[in-house]
Inverse folding.
């Protein structure tokens, strides 16, 4: 099994899950996932300021807003955040909720990358879910590669 | 009642923490905690290291997971099976809570007023709540030096508001502990009251959360007990009085214990202020020294639907709340309490 997805998302895609189902036909020793997205950060401070002004208006009490705006730099640079979770035919195989914009992950019978559950790479319907927690840049491109041990690394 | 010093909100490298479970547990032991809940974001993978970490450090580790969703973070503790955080819809969070409950767990709102996206994705609670009683707790003190933070003040006020509305919901602290780093900021402790020490530890700790046998502090352990016809009713319990008796004075005793976690916290020498607070506000207030002891109050609690104790004082040059108990609920009060 080998799959490669290249896609681009924007701010309106934030707060959605993108599911990539795939079929494993033969038992395998390991499943590999490589995921990378870019850019990670919003470098344009004017856009960042606008986003934070909205956020502060939404989440901060009126009397604290001025202070929050004065200290807004502590949140910079604003970041895109896309996380991965994995399901096999039996159920959940864990998630990798972290900021790294490039992750090389694997699952196998006895070991797995941090956040993922070791176990058989059994035949059946699997799914990798991308959770778009934040997309702050106008565009964010990503590449998702999934392959079983028997395939050569793309 | 055995009170267990706990830290209920932690992360490891299985999500975005910078520590292994053993490192986390060793850090907790060094700070005098007896129990932690592992609440990694959206994964329970770290629990594979649970037995080893418990053996190495003597710390009890409760299984948990922080639902780290787009519309709020929900801490869950004690669920035996995974419940799918990805299905959480802004108007249907109760379905997720029900699933956590079905699996034997409890669910609480994590840092409900922390600024949300994009600064902290999903950190602000935006889920619609149809029934607050469905939730087991609100994490009202998040992070270090929690009592003075404005987000926490909002969460604490929310909790009080829910108690006033007749809901029975607990309040906890959680450091949201991601890495081992020294801090001189006061650390919160959530004490869980274990009623049955013979029962399996994790079951009993989760039961304490579910039933509100919880007390939170940055210093001494504060507990509260009411007396009714010779019977003692502790934190989380219900004082049921006949309507005719509700106007009689109610005896409650607040107890302070300074020796727990000795050497792991310091507060300036001072006279504290011990308060009994209810739905009607501050019902009684009394100065107390920094010594173990019981303070008995005879309260006119006729109109109250709940009571808690609070300890106020000075920490780091600020006058602040030092500790609070969870509520004792009163039934038969003139305004009437909800019976779940």
């Amino acid at each position: 099994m080998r799959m490669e997805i290249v896609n681009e998302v924007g701010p309106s895609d934030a707060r959605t899950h993108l599911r990539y189902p795939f079929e494993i036909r033969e038992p395998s020793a390991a499943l590999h996932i490589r995921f990378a997205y870019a850019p990670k950060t919003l470098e344009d401070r004017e856009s960042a300021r606008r986003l934070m002004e909205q956020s502060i208006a939404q989440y901060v009490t009126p009397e604290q807003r001025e202070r929050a705006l004065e200290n807004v730099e502590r949140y910079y640079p604003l970041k895109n955040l896309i996380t991965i979770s994995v399901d096999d035919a039996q159920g959940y195989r864990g998630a990798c909720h972290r900021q790294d914009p490039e992750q090389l992950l694997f699952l196998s019978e006895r070991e797995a990358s941090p956040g993922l559950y070791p176990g058989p790479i059994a035949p059946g319907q699997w799914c990798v879910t991308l959770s778009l927690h934040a997309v702050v840049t106008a565009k964010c491109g990503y590449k998702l590669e999934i392959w079983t041990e028997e395939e050569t690394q793309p | 009642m055995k009170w267990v010093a706990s830290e209920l909100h932690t992360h490891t490298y299985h999500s975005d923490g910078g520590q292994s479970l053993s490192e986390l547990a060793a850090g907790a032991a060094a700070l005098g905690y007896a129990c932690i809940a592992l609440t990694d974001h959206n994964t329970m993978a770290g629990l594979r290291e649970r037995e080893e970490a418990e053996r190495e450090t003597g710390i009890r580790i409760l299984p948990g997971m922080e639902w780290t969703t787009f519309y709020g973070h929900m801490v869950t503790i004690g669920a035996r099976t995974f419940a799918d955080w990805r299905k959480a819809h802004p108007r249907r969070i109760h379905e997720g809570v029900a699933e956590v409950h079905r699996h034997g767990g409890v669910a609480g709102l994590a840092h409900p007023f922390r600024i949300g996206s994009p600064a902290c994705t999903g950190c602000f609670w935006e889920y619609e709540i149809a029934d607050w009683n469905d939730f087991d707790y609100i994490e009202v003190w998040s992070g270090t030096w929690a009592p003075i933070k404005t987000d926490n003040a909002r969460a604490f006020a929310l909790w009080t508001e829910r108690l006033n509305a007749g809901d029975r919901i607990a309040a906890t602290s959680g450091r949201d502990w991601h890495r081992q780093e020294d801090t001189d900021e006061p650390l919160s402790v959530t004490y869980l009251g274990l009623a049955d020490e013979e029962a399996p530890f994790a079951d009993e700790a989760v039961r304490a959360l579910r039933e509100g046998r919880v007390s939170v502090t940055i210093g001494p352990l504060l507990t509260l007990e009411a007396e009714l016809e010779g019977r003692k009713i502790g934190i989380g319990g219900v004082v049921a009085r006949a309507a005719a008796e509700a106007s009689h004075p109610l005896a409650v005793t607040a107890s302070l214990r300074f020796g727990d976690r000795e050497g792991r916290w310091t507060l300036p020498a001072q006279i504290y202020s011990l308060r009994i607070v209810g739905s009607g506000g501050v019902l009684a207030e009394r100065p107390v020294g920094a010594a173990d002891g019981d303070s008995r109050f005879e309260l006119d609690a006729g109109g109250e639907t709940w009571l808690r104790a609070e300890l106020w004082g000075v920490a780091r040059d600020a006058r602040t709340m030092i500790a609070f108990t969870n509520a004792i609920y009163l039934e038969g009060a003139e305004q009437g309490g909800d019976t779940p």
Chain A touches chain B through 38 residues (CB under 8 Å). The CA atoms of residues 61 and 122 of chain A lie 51 Å apart.
